[in-house]
């Protein structure tokens, strides 16, 4: 019985090869998902200035509860209450309700 000596490959090149074999396909999958997401957003108009709805502000009320100001494409602004298991319409808002107040000229910041 003779023991044959097996030459060891450098550990660094083995590790780098295994890491590359994992990271490269993962990078292709992530890039593919980003491309698909971008195409879906363009196709269905989910974001951008011409989106049917846009969120103006989110006000947290608790760990899972919040008020959300939503603006429609026509300019209508309304408030929606969002909880863990429930979404409910609160009220319509006038433009005066959401306009920022003008600062008097004499006040310094």
UniProtKB/TrEMBL annotation:
Organism of origin: Luteimonas terricola
Keywords of this entry: Cell membrane, Membrane, Transmembrane, Transmembrane helix
Pfam family, one: FliO
Protein name (record): Flagellar protein
Top-level division of the source organism's lineage: Bacteria
Compartments in which it is found: Cell membrane
InterPro entries: Flagellar_biosynth_FliO
Transmembrane segments: 20-40
